[in-house]
């Protein structure tokens, strides 16, 4: 293999050629949170948001986003995703978002997991912005990755 790079011989951006990489099972998990007031969080818990079930809609948006990551992130490979799970938890002091994505392929699904968390969090914001505009989407990060040449990663 000539080396994985996002630059061609002229120094221009290109999609990395992964054709010589081994096909392996790859999994990634990302997390983030939407911070809001206790009053807004109670609307989520009670299911009384005017736009509907915040957690259900955000879960679906995150799943759909993971499947469309290659359309959103330049130079990202389209992948045959075999599983996307997006979980939202409003039992604490914020809405916690976690997405796990799995594929069997030649490149990882870190971007898909991160995209799912971002879009799910943005959907929570969108559904509640009429109630509270100063919510904060924070702490979006990769927490786990397994498969491929680089092996396993687990965040602290």
Could you describe the 3D structure shown?
- This protein has 156 residues and is an alpha+beta fold.
- The protein has one domain: Molybdopterin cofactor biosynthesis C (MoaC) domain (Alpha-Beta Plaits, 2-Layer Sandwich), CATH 3.30.70.
- Helices cover 29% and strands 29% of the residues.
- It is built from four helices and five strands; from the N terminus they run βαααββαββ.
- The protein has helices spanning 38-46, 54-67, 69-72, 110-128, and strands spanning 24-35, 81-89, 94-105, 136-146, 153-154.
- A five-stranded antiparallel sheet has the order 2-3-1-4-5, with helices on one face.
- α2 (54-67) packs antiparallel against α4 (110-128).
- The longest helix has 19 residues, at 110-128.
- It catalyses: (8S)-3',8-cyclo-7,8-dihydroguanosine 5'-triphosphate = cyclic pyranopterin phosphate + diphosphate.
Q: How do the strands and helices of this protein lay out in sequence?
A:
Blueprint: E1 24-35, H1 38-46, H2 54-67, H3 69-72, E2 81-89, E3 94-105, H4 110-128, E4 136-146, E5 153-154
Helix pairs in contact: 2-4
Offer a quick outline of the entry.
It holds the Pfam family MoaC. One of its GO terms (molecular function) is cyclic pyranopterin monophosphate synthase activity. Helices cover 29% and strands 29% of the residues.
Defining traits:
Alpha-Beta Plaits, 156 residues
Low-confidence stretches: none
Classify the fold: give the CATH topology.
Answer: Alpha-Beta Plaits
Instruction: Going across the biggest sheet, name each strand in turn.
Output: 2-3-1-4-5
CATH homologous superfamily, by name? Answer: Molybdopterin cofactor biosynthesis C (MoaC) domain
Kindly name the structural category.
alpha+beta
Order of helices and strands: EHHHEEHEE
This entry's quaternary arrangement is single chain
**Strand elements, count:** 5
Q: First CA to last CA: what distance?
A: 33 Å
Specify the helix fraction band. Answer: 25-40%
- The radius of gyration is 18 Å
What integer is the average pLDDT? 91
| Count of DSSP-assigned helices | 4
């Amino acid at each position: 293999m000539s080396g994985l790079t996002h630059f061609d011989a002229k120094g221009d951006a290109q999609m990395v050629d992964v054709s010589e990489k081994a096909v392996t099972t790859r999994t990634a998990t990302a997390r983030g949170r939407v911070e809001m007031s206790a009053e807004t969080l109670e609307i989520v818990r009670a299911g009384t948001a005017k736009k509907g079930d915040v957690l259900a809609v955000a879960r679906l948006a995150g799943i759909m986003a993971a499947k469309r990551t290659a359309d959103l992130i330049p130079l990202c490979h389209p992948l045959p995703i075999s599983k996307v799970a997006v979980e939202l938890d409003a039992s604490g002091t914020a809405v916690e978002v976690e997405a796990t994505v799995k594929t069997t392929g030649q490149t990882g699904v870190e971007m898909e997991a991160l995209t799912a968390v971002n879009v799910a969090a943005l959907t929570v914001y969108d559904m509640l912005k009429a109630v509270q505009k100063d919510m904060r989407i924070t702490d979006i990060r990769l927490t786990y990755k397994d498969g491929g040449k680089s092996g396993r990663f687990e965040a602290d």
